[in-house]
Structure formats: structure tokens, C-alpha cells
Structure prediction request, 549 residues.
Amino acid sequence: MRKGMVGLAVAGLALSCGRVPIEPWSFPIAPFVDSCPPSGTPGMLTQVRAFPDGDLPRLYGAFGPCRLLLTSGMFDPATGAGPLLLSDGTPDGTQKVTDAFNGGMDFGMLGRIAVFGTWRTDGTPSGSFVLARDLYTNHIGNKRAERAVLGDVMLFAGNTDQFYPQSQTFHGYELWRTDGTQKGTFMAAELVDGIEPAYDGPEGLIVLNGAVLFTAAGAGWDLWRSDGTSAGTRRIAPVRKVAGAVLGGALLFVGGPHDASGAITSVGLWRTDGTEAGTSLLQDLGTPDADHASFYVGTDTFAVVPVGDRMIVLASPGLASVSVAGVQTFPPGPPMDAVWVSDGTAAGTHFVTELAEFSRFNTTFDARVLNGAVLFGSSAQGEAPELFSLWRTDGTAAGTFRLAPMFNFIDADAANGNVFFAAATYETGRELWVSDGTVANTHLVKDINPGSADGLERRDVRLPSSIGHIVSAAVGRGIIVEASDGTHGLEPWFSDGTDAGTRLIGDVFPGSQGSTLGRPVSMNGTGYFMATSSAQHGYALWRFDPPAP
Prediction:
């Protein structure tokens, strides 16, 4: 037995290698139906499709309940275009949709259409094409997610400016709309006349009461609303939104009035129903009082999370600014994270508690709702070797407490009512932990790499130990996570939240090098991911059918 099968025998799993196919783009196109293929054998790892060495295929995600969208990774260097593939997740069920795909980093669904920035597909050759000539979307940072679906229309930030001498019209990034057709793709409204170099277009798009609310980033910074038409696009209020979520029929958001540069002059919690008359301040967050010493400014970090009939508001001092001489200037407020709660009224908005930070460290929260509470990361009560801790709050002082040390969340296991996260101790190193939001059921799942060595490692080793990411995704009643037991290198593992149910899926790349796992995707309760099997072979798409519960 080859070395790669040893780990599988130890894990008690079976491996099924699909035939190494000919190049996927040479298969004839065949129509797909909506039915999902039969489930595979529980615990089995199957190679779905192999790609030529040197190609860098990308698995985008699930397209409906029974299909995956992916690229082959073979692109024309002159145009950047290449094949887009559709797969039902079986070795014989992967077909080419088009050779001319040149989409974005991710996609959003508009009915049964996948929209990749300026490119669309319905999974057929005739239904896969560019929506508008010379249209660009802003993919910088969080702009990847700057889109919102309103009925049968998608709104997004777009730009058609061509910087050539013959170009006469410049708009910058403006509000665009598409119904998935070329005729129905056009600029919905020009928020700022002419080109504005500092204007990034609409950001923070949120659907509310038949319209999309957003901030006009870089040009005015005010709160706007749009129904997807020019006549129905207007400014709501001269306040800037930095974080928000919908509660009932209103948007609750942290923000405030701002100066010409967009800097918020007075930060607070606001409420709007999408009209000027229905926009008001609920609570000032920028002034300390007898109940709390903490106060915040517009550049600090906030999270606004709905839980049932209330909104949890988390606040943390932002990052220090660094001068050319290397001098750090910290935010004016004390180094404390704070919890507020609101029912959407001024009378029902109040301070809950504040958490003294372990160090002056920017908290991103990455909050998750679980079992009627919000779980979040904070540097409060951090302890080496981790700088952060896992906290929970239900919006009361008594219901806000620390659960465990934490590096970051991995993924939620909604079926079991748990959340997975990575955490380190000196005894175990950084390993897989699980929590249901209670102290009693927050614990180490398994010391995958026995002893003080890490079983979970950051993908980018150039990053400081406090940040980075661990490749993972929720699948079925558990998660697929990239981990190492110290023998096999970083390989895919599966966990249902128990020690006995945490096991190596397969030694995909035999030996200690690891298989360079791509982000897993869940479709119909089955996990899919890209990974390499050896230095001589390229990537392959793999399928893992989770063990039966």
C-alpha cells in the first residue's frame, strides 16, 4: 500500500479515484437537469476532475442546489479569458459552458443567473456572456461584495470610463443595475456629476422596504436610497453609515454627520426607515458618562448584529495611525470594547457593559449569531499565546462573558448548533475548538497534532501570528478544515465537533508537504475542494461525502 493510503486506513476512510479524464473543455456540451446526483458512500473521497499541471483552476461555489461553477485555470494571456465549467460533482458530470469567460473574483445570484461582476451565466453556452461592453466593477477590498438584489434587479457599483483622448464622458464609479440582460444593464443613477478621483461609488448596499440603501463613498458620504431607477434614487440624510443591519422594518446603523473629507464628527447609533423624516439618532456613542468610560470616533470598529427582536452593537477602538517617523497615535477613547443593545427605539437603546482590552489591539469581532446570543472575538481578557478571546452576549450584562481563548472563527455548524474556532494553548498548540455559546460546552475538539505543535496553521506564514486565515467550510453536520497531524502535512480533515468524529479525509499529497487545499464548497450536503496530489500532477477537484450521523 502506498504511503498516501496509510493515513486513510488510520482515519478509517475509503478513497475512490475517479478516472484521470481527458481535458474537461474537450467534452461535448450536454444539458443539465435540476435533479441532484445520488449521494456517495459516506466517508468516501472521490476525485471528480483532474487538471493539467500548471493550470490554476478556481472553484467558485454552488450554482443552485445541484451544480458547481469553476474555471479550468487555463486562460488566454492576451485576453484573460478562459473556460468556465459546470459540474454536478461527479467524475462524468463536468462540462464546459464557454471558452470566453472573463468574470470577477466571485458571483452573486440573480434568480437562476450567476452574475460575476460584468459577466453572467445561466449554465448554458447561449446564456453566458458579458453584460455590458467596457463595464468594470470595483473589486478593491470589500467592494467584492458591493451588490444587492432588489426583486429581479441587481444593483452594484460600476464604471465604463475609458481613459483615452477620444473619450469625452467620465462618470467614475456610479450606481448601476442589471436584470441579467445586456439591454437591462445600465447606469441607474449618476450620484456625482462628472469624474471624481476620490469617489469609489456606492458602498454598504442594504435592501430595506423596497429600496437599496447605501453610502456614496468618497463624494458626499451621505446616506442614499434607490429603487433602481434614476427618479427613485435620492439622498436621505447627511450622515455617513459605517456599519448597519436591518431590524424589523428599519435599518439600524452606526455613523453620524461628517465633514467634507467624510470624517464623522459625532458617532452614534441611528435608525432609518429609508425616508428623510424616518431617520433619527437613537444613541450617542461618542461621549462617556456615569455608566461607561468608553467612547468612540468614526474611525473605530463597529459590528451591528440582529438577534431576534433586538440589535447587539459592538464597538472597539480602531487601529493606531503611524506617522512617517514611526510614531503611533491611538484613538482618543480608552482601550475598551463595549456592548450596547437596542430594540430600535431611543428609549430601548442602552449600554450593556464594557470589556477592557488585553492590549491596544484592533478588534474585528467577526460576530456570529448562535442559540439566541452573539459570539464574537475580542482582545479583552486575552492570554498568551493567543491575543484574543471568544466572548458571547445576549444583550445583558449577566449574559456577556468570556468563553475561551481564540485565534479566529473557522465555520458554523448550524445543524449541531455549534460554532468552530481555532485556539491555542501552550499545552496543545493551535487546534480545533467548538462552542454552543455556553462555558460548559466550549472546549478543544481534538489535539490533531499531538503536544504543543500546531494542528491548524495560517495559510500565509508571512502574516503576524495574530492574523491570517485557516482554510475551512461547513459541510453537512460538520466542517472540512485544513490541518496537519505532524506526519501528513496540511491536508483536508473532517470534524463533527467530537474527538472520535474528527479524522483525516485523505492524504491527498502523500508525505509531509501537504496538498494546498483550496477553499471548500458545500453543495447538497457534500463537500468539494481543489487540491494537488503530487509535485508532478496539477490540481484536481475532489468530492467528500461526510460520514453518516
